[in-house]
Amino acid sequence: MAGRLLLRAYRAAPQLRSSVLTRPLLRSATTVRGIPTDEEQATGLERRTLQAFKQGKDPYSILKPKHYAGTKEDPHIVPCIGTKRLVGCLCEEDNTAIVWFWLHEGEAQRCPSCGSHYKLIHHELPH
Ligand SMILES: [Zn+2]
Question: Which residues of this UniProt protein bind Zn(2+) (predicted)?
Fold first, then answer.
C-alpha cells in the first residue's frame, strides 16, 4: 500500500522525481573514492607513526631491525635513552646461554665471549 502511494507521488510530481534521481547520484559520488586508506583514516599515535615512516624514520622501533655484521667497521647498533645499557649476546646461533654485559656510551665495545662489536647510540623517545 505504501509502495503504491509512493509510486503515484513519484509519477505525479516531476520535482520529486528529479530529487529522487539526484539523491542516488550524490550518494554514489561519495562512494566513488572507495575505501579510505590507512593514512587517510589514521588518527593519533598511528597517524604520527605513518607520517614518520614517510620521512624514513621508525620512532617506535616497529620495523625489523637492520642486520649488522658485528665487526669494528659495522658494529651492532644499540639504541639507548641513557648512558649505558645491558646487552645480551647469543654468541653462536645454537647457543643456549646468553652472555650479558654492560654497554657504555662512547666507542664500540666487544662481547667478552665472541668479540662481536656493539655501539651505543643515543635515542630520543618521540614523546
Ligand atoms: Zn657474543
Answer: 89, 91, 111, 114
Contact 126, 83 (CB under 8 A): no
Q: Delimit the domains of the chain by residue range.
A: 62-126
Q: Is 80 annotated as a binding residue?
A: no
Look up cell 503515484; give the residue: 8
Band of the pLDDT at 32, cuts 50, 70, 90?
low
CATH 2.60.11.10 matches 62-126: yes
What pLDDT does residue 31 have? 52
Expressed in angstroms and rounded, the spacing between residue 102 Cα and the centre of ligand 1 is: 12
pTM: 0.59
Q: Is position 89 annotated in a ligand binding site? A: yes
Query: Region 102-114: what's the mean pLDDT?
Result: 95
For 87, the grid coordinates are 646487552
What is the spatial distance between Cα 2 and Cα 112, in angstroms, rounded to a whole number? 86
